[in-house]
Amino acid sequence: MIAADAVALEDRVRIDDLYARYAAVLDDADFEAWPDFFTGDATYKVIARENHDRGLPLALLAFESRDMLRDRVYAVTQTLFHEPYYQRHLITGIHARRDDDGFAVRANYCVVRTKAGALSEVYSAGRYDDRVVDDGGDLRFARKLVVFDSELIPNSLIYPL
Amino acid sequence: MIAADAVALEDRVRIDDLYARYAAVLDDADFEAWPDFFTGDATYKVIARENHDRGLPLALLAFESRDMLRDRVYAVTQTLFHEPYYQRHLITGIHARRDDDGFAVRANYCVVRTKAGALSEVYSAGRYDDRVVDDGGDLRFARKLVVFDSELIPNSLIYPL
Amino acid sequence: MIAADAVALEDRVRIDDLYARYAAVLDDADFEAWPDFFTGDATYKVIARENHDRGLPLALLAFESRDMLRDRVYAVTQTLFHEPYYQRHLITGIHARRDDDGFAVRANYCVVRTKAGALSEVYSAGRYDDRVVDDGGDLRFARKLVVFDSELIPNSLIYPL
What we know:
3 copies of one chain form a homotrimer.
Chain A: H1 9-27, E1 38-48, H2 49-53, E2 61-63, H3 66-79, E3 85-99, E4 102-115, E5 120-135, E6 138-148
Parallel strand pairs in A: 1-6
Antiparallel strand pairs in A: 1-2, 3-4, 4-5, 5-6
């Protein structure tokens, strides 16, 4: 059970804003702005819940620096052949705990996807298990771990979650 | 990218409450109370994301005063022939920026619809791009712009989003 | 219409945290921790919106003490034969009003379900209509009323909402 730890009110507000802006940038398909949410040596991993719970290392995506995230953005926007779709992030239950050099933040997410000429549908649901740090005055992700509940849909994962 | 601007804490709280009450009123089907969330000369527009992004003016719904919203409520509750359904609003990522005479507020929304004898399903997802002002002590929408991701489902849009 | 009542900021924060932790515990399938969110004589009821709106008493689930919730957890984890599934709670629009001895809290919820080898899907959507009290320094539910919009899916309801 997650304890209700003391996080200063202004930090809660900054963390809430971080997630709101993160969702807005991705849902606006402003992918070039996405790596800026991360520290230079940040890790970003997308892993199935079943693998994560069993301690299996196999992840769908795993990047170990902001430069790798920039490479991914280049691939997504320039080279990967894919059918475009809209994303809509619903991020709820944001809960932060303070520790030595930042915040451990957990949140639930659900991404609704809309393809051209199709209905909106649940695309991926799961949780974020993140480390957030103050990076020269801005909050950034030092680690973003996306644990998704279903293994099916994200096989065609193109855009960041 | 949306900047993290300084909105006073009490204003954040009031804005969060505005959206919570807005969702509650619509989801309770208390449509008569809906126009009260708007200023007298408010605009309310529901537009497909594709049209909005291309600068095309064609909107699914467009009203230019609170009186027009009252007319819409009358139509919805008294004259429009439609199969009733329940709405459930999930409004997340509320993010406000202060400007001269109010707040520019953006949020993501997803409406889950339930028809009689049917499963709950994603009905519409998109974003709100709103102007909120203090109107005699109460926060109200001076503009509510609903940009929906999918063009399909809202063809049968009856109730306000 | 729900009024925007004065709830102290620190209470809002505690209430937000309560719902975030509640969602996290259920979504982690940490069911043994679930009864601890309730007072000793709490009531927990899951009822269809149609029955609730008509004043019909028939509920899908109704428990009248924390001990009954513990019995339910035992049934869910030990005796009920069921196909496991993942839950993901999206709780939004949390809105509290202070009254004599606690808080009346309303929120919207949507639970996304994922079965093994299947897509994530909307499982249940509806609202919480709760009473929250300070119980020896911790906020707990003295009443949790889950009003779900669709009567269909929850026929197979196993885990708490």
